[in-house]
Amino acid sequence: xPSPPWVEARGVDAVVERWLASGYVRPCxxxxxxxxxxxxxxxxxxxxxxxxxxxxxxxxxxxxLYEHQSxxxxxxxxxxxxxxxxxxxxxxxLCFHLPVLQALADDPSARALYLYPTKALCRDxxxxxxxxxAEAGLTVPRIVYDGDTPGDARRAARERGAVIMTNPDMLHAxxxxxxxxxxxxxxxxxxxxxxxLHTYRGVFGSHMAHVVARLRRVARFHGADPVFLCATATIGxxxxxxxxxxxxxEADVSLLDESGAPRGTRRVFLFNPPIVNAELxxxxxxxxxxxxxxxxxxxxxxxxxxxxPSRNSVEIMLKYLRDKCxxxxxxxxxxxxxxxxxxxxRRRVERGLRSGEIVCVVATNALELGIDIxxxxxxxxxxxxxSVAATWQRFxxxxxxxxxxxxxxxxxxAPVDQYVARAPAYVLGGPIEEARIDPENVEIAVQHLKxxxxxxxxxCPDATPANDVEPEGYATLGPDATRDAxxxxxxxxxxxxxxxRFHWAADAYPAHHVSLRSIGWDxxxxxxxxxxxxxxxxxxRATHTMLHEQAIYxxxxxxxxxxxxxxxxxxxxxxKVLPDYFTEAMTNRQVSVLEERTSRPLGRALGSWGEVSVVxxxxxxxxxxxxxHENAGYGEVHLPDLQMHTTSFWLTAPDAVCLELGRPQAIxxxxxxxxxxETVAALALMCDPRDLGQTLxxxxxxxxxxxxxxxxxxxxxxxxxxxxxxxNFPGGVGLAxxxxxxxxxxxxxxxxxxxxxxxxxxxxACVGPAEASSMPEGRRAMALRVLDxxxxx
Length: 793
Known about the structure:
Layout: H1 12-21, E1 29-35, E2 42-43, H2 51-59, E3 65-66, H3 67-77, E4 81-84, H4 92-106, E5 111-115, H5 119-136, E6 142-144, H6 151-160, E7 163-166, H7 168-175, H8 183-187, E8 189-194, H9 202-221, E9 227-231, H10 238-246, E10 253-256, E11 266-271, E12 275-277, E13 282-283, H11 286-299, E14 304-307, H12 311-329, E15 334-337, H13 343-355, E16 360-363, E17 378-382, H14 388-395, E18 405-410, H15 415-422, H16 425-428, H17 442-455, E19 458-459, H18 479-491, E20 495-498, E21 501-504, E22 524-528, E23 533-538, H19 540-546, E24 552-555, E25 558-566, E26 571-577, E27 581-602, E28 605-625, E29 631-636, E30 642-652, H20 655-661, H21 663-684, E31 692-698, E32 721-727, H22 735-741, H23 743-756, H24 779-790
Helix pairs in contact: 2-5, 3-4, 9-17, 11-12, 20-21, 21-23, 21-24
């Protein structure tokens, strides 16, 4: 697709006009929707706002607040927990900065704790708060306390910090276990700010609920009962999610979900690249299409962000954009932002975006969160992000100053993307997903109960209450469950019961053995051999696909070849090269049963639960030419397998049933049933879909699994297709066992979801989209036939 020549016309309107006049772009637009602007709704400055903060706002040209900002201040000052659920760029930061700073101005002994999900966001907001403090002329010591904070700064934080800005992991493992050293913070704790509340969902959110419960328990011990101020992007259940995360009732939390901030005109396009192979349904490269559209914007000097689906795709698009636009915009005006870049480079990009020196940034979802990246006018998403909420979170990164903005989503050839292209209302007008957590998960609760016992002794729930302990039970566990769990831990020698109290008795430091997120192996350092310096860092899992020997590692639009991977010392040595290709790893995933703990018939199928091994192996890599994307060859990879021992539920369908219905169609329908079962299980178990994994294979321990059989061939005789739904965490967190316990109910729910869906052949809301040619009657209809034949659901 040729980009228009450089012309004097600039801005969003000029680009849109050219697209609509183009014989290439216009026919590919699957949707063109305009969202009208909204006018601001103001409220006077609250009466409780002191003169210092009024001067600070005046310095920013603010003499009145948006309605939701004023209301948030009043509610916070009255002692109410608050959750602000307004769109991106609606001024949510002032909703918690103002009440916090007012409390600190009124009482020098008051303290506040800010929690952010990432280090980058934490440091970005520290700069924002610092500017407001300076403009107010206040002396409020604030500090970021994370893994990068030097030792002397940590001591200063404990002794003098009035505002501590940190992340859940540091609070969990670095602050709460040492709360005696933080007595000034906890005794004066007035406010706890929880930003980006929507990120705390699934297993991570369930862990976070317990961290909050431990925080409140420690604060009460020190004589404080803080008010929680939460902010979230648009989700379907902000009030319920906030209340569950804070461990309180919905009546105790005030929801502010009507924004008083203005919103400029936003025009949303859905671009579906043209078909290049009608027989196979293959379309033109969505990455190149996204680059071409972004290039039009850059050449018209429109500040733009391009979202890519992976780190490698970000680097490819960065190279293509620079090739197309560097002569107009300048090499350093087009930058990338992704995980793996060193902190200094990410800060440099953030500053360049705010100052306007960078016209276009190509990013992964690392920039979905609320880092201040200045005023952007356009968003281009290469591929569907996977959820409606994430889509609108990305779209909201443009138009942050109330100006006209555009958002373009470029569909790939993947079935989900093509479904969205056929039914754009699924994204543009459909309901936003809900955030769900399950603090009652027994495995998670017991882990945090140990952490809580280490921090403070427990008064036995049936003993006489005391001032320094909590008699009512722990977090979401009631008194009886807390007592039973503590006595079970006492039987294991973890706690010791004496005089009606449970004291920590083990030598281990429990928080160090409880990961709030997923796998936490050390990062690999990437070393530029010629320069003798660290170039970047990469997490353990990504190393297998991006840093195997002979891989082309792409960094800041340049190519480096991996000459040596020192696996034991976690170092990769690279040399800068100028190849005409990039590499892409090929991986296989295999699930095999290690131990079947229990099983029972589910109709003609067999339902089981037990321990499984999930093995991911990089088996080789492809060389793909830049621009043409032709395959230029293959290479071998010799790396250890990535193996995860976890628990799984599995449903085995007899091969005889598949033969009755037509084996290929039945197996494809089972994949669709797996999609529906995963969806209803995530809802029923109140977890994030990413907390579960599902695949189709063979339950036999010696089998290679269906996914690894010869390409293009069906399973051999005797193969009983087995649908696995497993915990996507090492060791498991109890999700698969609960699926097993509720298998009949969940399969019935899955059937209801499939039967009640309004789609024709299949969609992301039921069995997943499938090409009509692969199954004449449609995957949805075949899935129902399979469930009927199995007698389940």
